């Protein structure tokens, strides 16, 4: 007969072994808060840990990651968006509690809403058509994120029924929504690759956007144009003596960079055993020692090239291209459809969008370019602002000046402009994301 006391003690030991140990230290480093995590290892746990920090828009200035045997250890040097150490006790408590529960299922940005997932070919006016359809079908857009990369677009749109204010559960209406949006995404030339789905499942928005883009193989497509500074330097080599593949990434530093890279390594079914992350004023240097889930390193040249392409896409697809416009106004049905129609009628293409509602107010961020991806004419931007409302639609950033034109065109860029571009990428503040943060425990 099994001893009850022994069983209880064994269960307590298992709990202690599997529960991550989290230590937050503000004394050791003068420039950053140090967050240490020790835990039993499982696939995806590094991504979960990084996700906790990046959901708070924290900058990871340095990191040391090690996984030996069945144990996993992370050390993160983090600051807020202004480069300051973390002093808010509520934030520190949230980090400690969230990291302490990363072995549990972490979910969601979208409780209580119906989730629309859309992928297809990007084009001017696409979002205008999407939001017009949703308005016509009495769907109230509560939150949304839209990414574009290499001529492809991926969107996660959270909606509720305009009349009841509840998630959409009527199967007939869901079928109509899917069919109408699929027709919009297909356009005239995207019959095979346009995809739509409607679900009430709970997802992590940015993690899912990476998965959607990866599944859509955006990394294999050639961009119409790209900024000269866009492409990160990625190298992959095998360390035969130890059985690792060593991945190095060098690019401009920014918020959520480590999350983007680790998210894609995880989705490609690689395990990070060791890693070092260092940043300077404007550059990030990331080194990963990885293997397949079965323990083998990268085994062929095509696979090596695929890893390089995928990681370059992971870094670039979140890039902020174009003029940043912030819309803050009272929310109403059809608002997004009207704003997007105004963009379309003036030849503006939305390269990224982050849409949210706070109470009865709409807090939206758009990045816009001209129809072929170059910086929009300031006169057109001003005309659009006058139509939507000068006090509601604010220009927060100047167009990128460091971009590569078509072959044969003048490619000269002033040094001062390049420096301003680098500095601008560092101080970009995504204020409205804070309004989207929900507890993921």
Automatic annotation (TrEMBL):
Pfam families: ACT, ACT_ACR9_3rd
TM annotation in the entry: none
GO MF entries: amino acid binding
Cross-referenced CDD domains: ACT_ACR_1, ACT_ACR_2, ACT_ACR_3, ACT_ACR_4
Sections of the chain in a coiled coil: none
Domain ACT: 34-110, 115-192, 324-403
Domain of life (superkingdom): Eukaryota
Record-linked InterPro entries: ACR1-12, ACT-like_dom_sf, ACT_dom
PROSITE patterns (UniProt xref): ACT
Gene3D superfamilies: 3.30.70.260
Keywords: Repeat
Function: Binds amino acids.
UniProt protein name: ACT domain-containing protein ACR
Species this protein is from: Abrus precatorius (Indian licorice)
């Amino acid at each position: 007969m099994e001893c009850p006391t022994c069983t209880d003690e064994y269960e307590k030991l298992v709990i202690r072994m599997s529960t991550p140990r989290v230590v937050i230290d503000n004394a050791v480093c003068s420039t950053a808060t140090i967050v240490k995590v020790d835990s039993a290892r499982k696939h995806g746990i590094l991504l979960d840990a990084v996700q906790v920090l990046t959901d708070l828009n924290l900058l990871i200035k340095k990191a040391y990651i090690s996984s030996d045997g069945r144990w996993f250890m992370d050390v993160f040097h983090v600051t807020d968006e202004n480069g300051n150490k973390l002093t808010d006790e509520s934030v520190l408590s949230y980090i400690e509690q969230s990291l302490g529960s990363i072995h549990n299922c972490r979910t969601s940005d979208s409780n209580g809403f119906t989730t629309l997932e859309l992928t297809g070919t990007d084009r001017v006016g696409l979002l205008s058509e999407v939001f017009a359809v949703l308005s016509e079908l009495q769907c109230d857009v509560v939150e949304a994120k839209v990414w574009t990369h290499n001529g492809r677009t991926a969107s996660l749109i959270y909606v509720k029924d305009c009349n009841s204010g509840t998630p959409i559960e009527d199967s007939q209406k869901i079928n109509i929504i899917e069919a109408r949006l699929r027709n919009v995404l297909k356009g005239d030339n995207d019959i095979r690759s346009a995809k739509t789905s409607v679900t009430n499942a709970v997802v992590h928005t940015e993690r899912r956007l990476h998965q959607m883009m990866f599944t859509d193989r955006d990394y294999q497509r050639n961009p119409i144009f790209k900024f000269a500074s866009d492409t990160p330097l990625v190298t992959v080599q095998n360390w035969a003596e130890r059985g690792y593949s060593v991945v190095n990434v060098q690019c401009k530093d920014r918020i959520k960079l480590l999350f983007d890279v680790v998210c894609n390594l995880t989705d490609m079914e690689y395990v990070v055993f060791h890693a070092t992350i260092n940043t300077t004023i404007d550059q990030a240097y990331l080194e990963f020692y990885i293997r397949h889930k079965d323990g083998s390193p990268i085994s062929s040249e095509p696979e090596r090239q695929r890893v390089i392409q995928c990681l370059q896409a992971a870094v670039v697809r979140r890039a902020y291209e174009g003029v940043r416009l912030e819309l803050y106004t009272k929310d109403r049905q059809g608002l997004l459809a009207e704003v997007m129609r105004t963009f379309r009628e003036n030849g503006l293409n939305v390269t990224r969008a982050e849409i949210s509602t706070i109470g009865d107010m709409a807090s939206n961020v758009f990045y816009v370019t001209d129809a072929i991806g170059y910086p929009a004419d300031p006169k057109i931007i001003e005309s659009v602002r006058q139509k939507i409302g000068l006090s509601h639609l604010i220009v927060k950033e100047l167009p990128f000046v460091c971009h590569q034109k078509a072959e044969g065109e003048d490619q000269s860029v002033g040094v001062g402009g390049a420096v301003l571009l680098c500095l601008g990428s560092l101080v970009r503040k995504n204020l409205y994301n804070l309004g989207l943060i929900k507890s993921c425990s």
